[in-house]
Design goal:
The chain is built from 12 helices and 4 strands; from the N terminus they run αβααββααααααααβα. It is mainly α.
């Protein structure tokens, strides 16, 4: 990769073959994030009629969307059912679910594994199924030829900016919802960590290592890849939206959408999952350090540490963004009239899209509740 953050798009160079929008070109090796580059008949480039979607193509696009959104629904519903089954088995096996005096659920190391495992299993399973049907090797998703030292520094700077900006958006969201008497997370969904060396070690493995890897395989390795066949820019934002809503509450949705855009952009530009996985592990590890700080330093010192960390992220991220914009190093893939007619107009007619959105939105809305004294004290 040329050593900047805006490497060339796959399929945009004259020496790379165009594709039909639904499968990656086989010449020169597998390309996981090919753009939608239709071949116009000679002399018809720019003809308005060429932007129209034929009935045959519309059906092919709807099949593509059905497969993509269907995978998202399988992950959401499947992981929920698996989680409930695990908790029932734990209860029948004598596991004692503990609560604080005010009724807040206590999350210990076993509870953490039970809550994390279903999503991890389904993310990896869906990725392996999708990879198998695309006839790609694992190495095709972890290319290094487009990753340079400058792009790595720029990427992590933008991750810091997105993280800090998302936390500000979270605060605005929470304050805005509180002002109208609604909490984005009700009392019933509050939890308290059972901080201990065992819990911290298990939580680090599940939250900071396994979950980031599994989620990037799913949302950038499957959802983003499949949607990129139609439009790279559209795929970046849509996969980030699905990634955010998947977390089941509006607070995390805001954070994950902001980060998902950066992860998706890096995946498309490098043709690799290496940076998204590294960035995801980085932010989850940063969040985990607050728990470590609280355990070893105390709650007050942990709060000071967290504030300094976020301020540092914001400063470094803002400087990175300014430098990249000043040097024109950020450029999203094109989203022209051809892409527009093959994204939203088709998606809005897909039952699978609306079903997926209803499931995700219901999941997020169901976690909301009235503002109570307990929540105000959190």
């Amino acid at each position: 990769m040329d050593n900047n953050f805006n490497g060339q798009n796959y399929g945009q160079n004259s020496n790379e073959p165009a594709n039909n929008g639904y499968s990656a070109p086989v010449q020169g090796g597998y390309r996981p994030y090919v753009p939608y580059t239709p071949q116009y008949p000679s002399g018809n480039m720019g003809n308005g009629d060429m932007f129209e979607v034929s009935l045959q193509e519309r059906k092919a696009l709807k099949r593509q969307y059905f497969g993509t959104f269907g995978r998202a629904m399988v992950h959401c519903v499947g992981s929920f059912i698996m989680a409930q089954a695990i908790f029932i088995i734990m209860s029948l096996s004598g596991y004692e679910f503990r609560y604080t005096e005010d009724g807040t659920a206590i999350v210990d190391w076993l509870y953490n594994i039970a809550g994390s495992l279903p999503s991890i299993v389904f993310c990896i399973g869906i990725f392996l199924f999708d990879k198998g049907t695309s006839h790609a090797s694992a190495g095709d998703y972890f290319r290094t030829d487009r990753i340079g030292s400058k792009s790595v520094l720029a990427f992590f700077g933008m991750v810091m900016f997105a993280y800090a900006a998302a936390l500000i958006c979270q605060a605005l969201l929470i304050n805005g919802m509180f002002s109208i008497g609604i909490s984005p997370i009700s009392e019933d969904y509050l939890t308290e960590e059972d901080l201990s060396p065992t819990y911290l070690a298990v939580s680090f493995v599940t939250t900071a290592i396994l979950a980031p890897i599994a989620e990037e395989l799913m949302f950038r390795g499957v959802i983003l890849r499949r949607l990129s066949r139609i439009s790279q820019s559209f795929a970046i934002f849509m996969s980030a939206l699905i990634f955010g809503l998947m977390h089941g509450n509006f607070v995390q949705t805001v954070l994950c959408i902001c980060l998902g855009i950066v992860f998706g952009y890096a995946a498309v530009k490098t043709g690799s999952l290496i940076l998204p996985i590294a960035g995801h592990i980085f932010v989850n590890t940063a969040a985990m350090t607050n728990s470590f700080a609280e355990y070893y330093l105390g709650e007050e010192s942990a709060s000071i540490y967290w504030m300094l960390l976020i301020v540092g992220f914001g400063v470094i991220g803002t400087i990175t963004l300014i430098v990249l914009l000043a040097n024109h190093r950020i450029s999203f893939p094109q989203f022209n009239e051809y892409h527009k007619k093959r994204t939203f107009p088709i998606i809005f007619t897909c039952v699978s899209f609306w079903l997926m959105m209803c499931i995700y939105l219901f999941d997020c809305i169901s976690t909301c509740g009235p503002v109570t004294e307990k929540l105000m004290g959190e």
